[in-house]
């Protein structure tokens, strides 16, 4: 198995605090995190918590083996916070439409964050837990309602995902079948050609020409089939068959942009355009460009135009 | 282009009086500064008057012109024009007593070579100071580098100067194309060049757009040669109806010509007298900031060298670390050695890639190790 150098370095960094094995010595090593936020490798967990419960190595809090989860993040503190957040949000599950204005919602969120922060950093654990319990008691029915709503939404999402997956599967199978059919058709036509070459009395060249024709026809058929893709969505992204609300959308009136070309005041007579220079005869009086100059994209008109521009610029200054 | 340039916005003045005013103010400012500093021997008589400064200015300007003309390789005319313009602009806002024109002269030429993309190395430049020894040239170079930034600052960082040479070429092309009345414009070229060289020694560059100066030059040479070119302005430039602009053009041309007439080479005895005064002012009150600047340069070098050292350090440490680590490929330590040698080669690549490693050098070094890994395995 091959790893990137950066991954190898990281493997070296992380290690079990007890047995000091690191991931590079035993690549299949998994670190587990518990509620106190300290990590232990799988083997150490098995050893220490053989009886199901014990104390953490580093902070001596009583723990249970079942509370150990595989570490998802590099920093075990993050894992700990994620767990705590999940638990808190099970209770504090109000959503933005539950509040009458933005300020209240933000205040609510601030309270939630404070609770999570306190629990993660072990500040005022008791007080926070009491606050949580009080909230739970007061808003029991709201919590229930929201829980139900959440599960419903999740189910809907899952359904959509399932549908999409099924659609993908179907399409895949269809394309496979198509390919199979095409292969078979080709094989059949080849076989037919061989048979005809054997049996019929028509000269071989004509048979080959006929075969080629048929093969070309088959190709065009296949191409046409490919182009008939089933349209399932409109170009705007709305899937076919979905009911679209016919409420009027607010019209946005915007000011139309009018292009104004830039006008540069040169305080002098007008300069002829670069393209006109040849026609007007200016280029006769400029040194012709050598081949090595023209290779870089230079032509004598450029130098001529610049000289004329410089000559005319500011000639009528200071009035223009 | 001139019409959007900083030259038109900031360095084109209305009349000679405002220029005189600025020079007087610069002179006065220096005097006040010196008088306020209360150094011994300071009195009004010691300082140069504005008109005396003017004489010296013209003298050094001529010397600058001669220096540029004697320059090897041959300096293009626009470079010369730019150098003289820098010199003029600098002493519009500063007094000759504060910064000696001898040094500023050379710096103007040096900067102008750089700005106009006339590629001359610094050693080549000071090699043109034929009257000095090698050590003298070294010292001159140091001085140049010291004051270069000051010059740029006093020019207010407006480094692009529009000289009348290209407008002159453009007008000649235009005359050849649209004005067949004048048979051989090329015959005018020599006198036009002469005119333009003389005009750079006047204040015209600070008062008129370069295209007007070029036009004056051409019309003047034509009239000197007895050829009539009056209809050029009215017909080709479309000024037949626009009497006002035509009058203004004639007025401008007249003023340029009068400026040229007024110019005269400074008299040698006057120059010598004022030079003595100038030298005394510089000797007595000149600030010697050589020492400070030198240290500044050394510091710069030192700072520039440091990241290099840490780069090499980090790479060396990487290599050592590689050797000391157990090779976890099954191929063994021989691979680690091969890796070492490749890392040395990779250090060349690293030097190009890791420009300013801030923070974790090691991490920078690791970022391109995968590529080496791949070629090893």
Automatic annotation (TrEMBL), chain A:
It comes from Oncorhynchus tshawytscha (Chinook salmon). It is found in: Nucleus. InterPro entries: MAT1/Tfb3 (IPR004575), MAT1_CAK-anch (IPR057657), MAT1_centre (IPR015877), Znf_RING (IPR001841), Znf_RING/FYVE/PHD (IPR013083), Znf_RING_CS (IPR017907). One of its GO terms (biological process) is regulation of transcription by RNA polymerase II. GO terms for molecular function: cyclin-dependent protein serine/threonine kinase activator activity; zinc ion binding. This is CDK-activating kinase assembly factor MAT1. Associates with CDK7 and cyclin H. Keywords: Cell cycle, Coiled coil, Metal-binding, Nucleus, Transcription, Transcription regulation, Zinc, Zinc-finger.
UniProtKB/TrEMBL annotation, chain B:
The chain crosses the membrane at residues 328-350. Residues 62-153 form the Cyclin-like domain. It comes from the Eukaryota. GO terms for cellular component: transcription factor TFIIK complex. Pfam families: Cyclin_C_2 (PF16899), Cyclin_N (PF00134). The keyword Membrane applies. Keywords: Cell cycle, Cyclin, Membrane, Transmembrane, Transmembrane helix. One of its GO terms (biological process) is regulation of transcription by RNA polymerase II. One of its GO terms (molecular function) is cyclin-dependent protein serine/threonine kinase regulator activity. InterPro entries: Cyclin-like_dom, Cyclin-like_sf, Cyclin/Ssn8, Cyclin_C_2, Cyclin_N, CyclinH/Ccl1. Regulates CDK7, the catalytic subunit of the CDK-activating kinase (CAK) enzymatic complex. CAK activates the cyclin-associated kinases CDK1, CDK2, CDK4 and CDK6 by threonine phosphorylation. CAK complexed to the core-TFIIH basal transcription factor activates RNA polymerase II by serine phosphorylation of the repetitive C-terminal domain (CTD) of its large subunit (POLR2A), allowing its escape from the promoter and elongation of the transcripts. Involved in cell cycle control and in RNA transcription by RNA polymerase II. Its expression and activity are constant throughout the cell cycle. Associates primarily with CDK7 and MAT1 to form the CAK complex. CAK can further associate with the core-TFIIH to form the TFIIH basal transcription factor. Belongs to the cyclin family. Cyclin C subfamily. This is Cyclin-H. It comes from Oncorhynchus tshawytscha (Chinook salmon).
